[in-house]
Amino acid sequence: MITLSDAHLEHLKSERPVRLRSHHLLCMQTFVGNGYSEAFVENMKQVLARLAAEATPGFMLAEGADDLCAACPNLVNGQCTSQNPGQFDALVMKCLSTAGEKARMMTEIPPSLRMTEELLEQCCPGCEWKDLCREVCGCASGLEHGITIYTDDNHN
Ligand code: SF4
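That is the input. Now the predicted structure with iron/sulfur cluster docked in place:
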């Protein structure tokens, strides 16, 4: 059963920026409809749809649990109970620092985080979704199968 809270749905409908932890900037690019639960998948779709629909997509880079975690069964008392996400966040932030991008409010996924198989290897060690993401990256039109927030279309 899908259980997105009213408060969360209200937040997504509001003008407040979507909050995203850094490694989710990668997850969103290879999303093809899979996830931890039905509610998680529905929430991912709603977050991506909102970002894609805005004239100027924007999101706040967050630390810890974010608007995708909000519907995840691994979130318990506001804390992620999975082992790796903190490490993924740190690795992704390293890519951002390397590129000299420190802004917390972002309008698009920066070039240094456009998903590739190399980035996957670098930032996602031990992730349970890695095989799927590798498959999506490797498809001729792989990343177009997911819902992206940085296509030429929605930035023109
Ligand atoms: S596994 Fe953890 S980091 Fe990933 S969406 Fe769930 S709560 Fe968030």
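Residues 7-142 form one domain.
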